[in-house]
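fold-stage: in
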Amino acid sequence: MTTNPSTPPQAPAVVRTRVELHDALASWTLSGPEPTDRRAVVMTMGALHAGHVRLVQAAREAAGPTGQVVVTIFVNPLQFGAGEDLDRYPRDLEGDVATLASAGADLVFAPTPDVVYPDGDPIVRVSAGRVGEVLEGESRPGHLDGVLTVVLKLMHLTRPDVALFGEKDAQQLLAVRRMVRDLDVDVEVLGVPTVREADGLAMSSRNAYLSDDERASALALSRALRAGAEAADGGAPAVLETASGILNGESGVEVDYLALVDPTTVDPVPADFSGPALLLVAARVGTTRLIDNQAVDLAGQEKTRD
């Protein structure tokens, strides 16, 4: 999508069915894209914020000026567990499409569950394996299986050359990369750095649930991660001890997990580990569950994702 600065950006086309999607994708293919053009997809659950906008902008860069950028908006029931916020998850398709008009999206695929799962709950699903059994997988059993199942289906439906995911959901990104590699899916997966509010809070659609007091408490997550990274010279135990101290000192934060892991396997790093690691946190602030992460170099040099 190319825009003239003197004219307002054009809203992306919105399709809701498989047939409409197929026709829209075929139309672009038949229009004779340049050999270097690619189709890039960004998969979202809607309630778009500046973090999503950055993903779409990165997709435009990856696709090329005359490539095709597809954004999917689908609140996937398979990745929500019993008692989670499926029913109250924020939905605003009209507002999302308006947001995407200036971000560089060409096409929005916004299906209903019966379009994605025409036979109801799928009998055959993708398993995240051991990656889906720890951290997020332990706290939310079946969550990553549900994520990978819908990601694979949307890859098949949109047929992208490249798919972009935010690094805030670090374990999800790792699981998608492993699925693509292990199952020989011909899609390049790109991670896009976390976008943060001015106060350091990682952008998330669930931030809208936070009261003013809860938001102030939630800042302990990013503060703990930064402090942990700064303690890297003391090794893995110092990183965890420093971050844990800040989290435990904030009365409004209930920690689900804090872990320092290998960024390619999410296995915990040993106490004497040296090299790149990933500091992950999940916590509840009020009734809202938030996640965040920070890259840490245990050789002593911090690498930030901000």
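fold-stage: in (second)
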Amino acid sequence: MSNNMQGNTTYSPFPGNHSHTNNTCSRDNILKTVVFPVLYSCLFLVGLSLNAVAVWVFFRIPSKSHFIIYLKNIVVADVIMTFTFPFKVLSGSNMASTGLRVFVCRVSSVLFYLTMYISIIFFGLISIDRCRKTLKPFRGTNAARLARRKLLSGAIWTFLLLLCLPNVILTRKPPKSSSFKCSDLKTEAGLYSHEVVNHVCQVIFWGNLVTVIICYTLITKELYRSYSRTKAHSSGGTKSGASTRKPQQGNRKMSANVFLVLAVFFVCFVPFHFARVPYTMSQTQRGLFVCELKLFLFQLKESTLFLSSLNSLLDPLIYFFLCKSFRTTLFKTLQLPPGSCSRLTGRGSDTDTGSTALRDSAVRA
């Protein structure tokens, strides 16, 4: 068996990363050893820059809304995930020592998947918040609600940290050779803990997927009704289309911005979790899959895992387009006028909702 292939593989403490392959199917893989290390290196450099700016801006913004609290948590998760990429590069390109690969098994991979599921949960919470703002745009917040959201955020981090801690503690067997899988380092209790975490993380993803779909279905219906009311109001006025076309175009553009959360969620997280299902079957029911199919599913899983990593790069789009406080602070820092990016963001939202077409719901004939 090639040491290269075996040296690349890890058995993740979170679901979807049972990357060990059958011995008979092991072979050098340029996608794994060259392409992905290069992609993750680029992702690290760009992601580190963008998230450094996001951290610098966000922690100058007071947590005055649920939305900002959730975004700050995602920023922290993205920064942690970004710092796991160099270890992924070294391990994947066979440049890591045995000790470093043990560290990847025990710590780096755990943090990568921890931050992924942190982001998934907060995407679900953001979707609920967007839905609430859409259906009840004039409902405010208060200090008590903000305090509860902060406590909820702390509870989420604590829960997932405790969930993954056994995978760190119970991955303690010394490697018997330089060619090892992360599963070789786990005790029996560690393997059992891994299966438990598998099931919990499946519940987290599928539960949040259902939440996101329901929330954005309701948002779509409300925005359509709002657009219909605005169109009826405009057509019933005395002024003709030229005077109303520009505001309507801005509102439609801002309405589209709301769906950035949905787009990022589906691009980054959905492909990986759908690809994981046949991949896991290929690992647990090996007799049903030929070698070539196993390798294809492995490569598919790794490709969709990279899409999940893109989350750390795409989240800054959400901060910029949906959070007015973020834009305002950024523009002040760069000494740019607030309207510099009005063509991209619409006609300037009044709140940090991203759903500025919500104002249309107040327009009634």
